[in-house]
Write a structure and sequence with these properties.
Structural class: mainly beta
Radius of gyration: 22 Å
Protein name: Lipoprotein
Number of domains: 1
Order of helices and strands: EEEEEEEEEEEEEEEEEEEEEEEEEEEE
CATH superfamily: TolB, C-terminal domain
Shape: globular
Number of strands: 28
Mean pLDDT: 89
Low-confidence stretches: 1-30
CATH architecture: 6 Propeller
CATH class: Mainly Beta
Number of helices: 0
Strand content: over 45%
InterPro entries: WD40/YVTN_repeat-like_dom_sf
Distance between the termini: 34 Å
Oligomer: single chain
């Protein structure tokens, strides 16, 4: 756009009148993204929606909500190759995807074989997406095509025949994944072809029989949330040994669900009993609670990494 500048010298200063500067062409470095690294996404059970908070727990927007009261969202994860948040939907079982850039929604997976209750999901390092359907783990390509066999391994896979519910799945840096299950009080680690690594980890706490959350931390340790009589956050080594309790406070945790690691390195735990997010250090020091009145019966939490 061309413009005519009228230049006047007054008291030694130069002023420009009647000129509108051309708008810079957006580049990837200066585009305004809807979802920023460090933002927190919560599955809000009360409103059946994905709520976007900033890193301090302040409300930003609703990323996605369900109009059908017969539907619900269960878990959320990152689809790193397309910069999308993916999530499981029940009622009409499917996996949805929302762009981190502009919030655009699409149905990523709508497969006739998904007929049960969908729980956790994750994207493996090779791009494949795992979705838990109670005890069955379904496997799809990054474009949503169902896989029935990979490297001679049959999918869906029951991961050893357990009848428990796989609540959260988490892809590990070595290409495999972790599964934590309710009803069985255990967390297990697998290769990408469903071979178990190490031994199952159980809480060993009487009356605490649900493992709702499990993630791999940046230092390679595995953090877990056990839900029950004594709600407890624990860690083990990458080899699934050396279990250690790092946090347990019934005044703060009433019903811990999934975990995520924030950009500052701390652990965030969503609690569906107190309707809040609890932030602790990786050694178990309480930092703060987030969310407050903004969330109701939350089921999952996810801190957006750098992308």
């Amino acid at each position: 756009m061309k413009c005519l500048n009228t230049v006047a010298l007054i008291l030694g200063m130069t002023f420009f009148f009647g000129c509108k500067q051309d708008k810079a062409i957006p580049t990837k470095s200066n585009e305004t993204y809807l979802v920023r690294p460090g933002d927190i996404i919560v599955v809000n059970g009360t409103s059946r929606s994905l709520i976007l908070l900033d890193s301090n727990g302040n409300y930003k927007t609703v990323l996605y909500d369900l109009d059908n009261i017969a539907e619900s969202i269960y878990d959320v994860a990152l689809k790193k190759d397309t910069n999308e948040i993916i999530f499981t939907v029940n009622g009409s079982p499917r996996v949805g995807a929302v762009s981190l850039v502009n919030g655009a929604y699409r149905t990523l997976i709508a497969d006739a074989n998904l007929t049960g209750a969908l729980k956790g999901l994750t994207q493996l390092q090779n791009g494949d997406i795992l979705v838990s359907e109670i005890s069955n783990i379904e496997r799809f390509t990054t474009t949503g095509v169902r896989r029935t066999s990979v490297a001679g391994v049959t999918w869906p896979n029951t991961l050893g025949g357990t009848s428990t519910t796989a609540e959260q799945l988490f892809a590990t840096a070595d290409g495999g994944f972790i599964v934590c299950s309710s009803g069985s009080d255990n967390v297990k680690r697998y290769t990408q072809n469903a071979v178990i690594v190490g031994a199952a980890v159980v809480s060993g706490i009487a009356g605490t029989t649900d493992a709702f959350g499990c993630i791999e931390l940046a230092d390679g340790k595995i953090a877990m949330a056990f839900n029950g009589t004594t709600d407890t956050i624990r860690t083990v080594s990458a080899a699934m040994t050396g279990i250690a309790t790092i946090y347990s406070d019934l005044a703060v945790l009433a019903s811990p669900r999934t975990l995520t690691q924030a950009l500052n390195g701390n652990i965030l735990i969503v609690d569906s009993g107190y309707n809040q997010i609890v932030e602790i250090t990786t050694t178990g020091t309480f930092v703060r609670t987030l969310g407050g009145s903004l969330i109701g019966t939350p089921n999952a939490v996810f801190s957006v990494p750098n992308y």
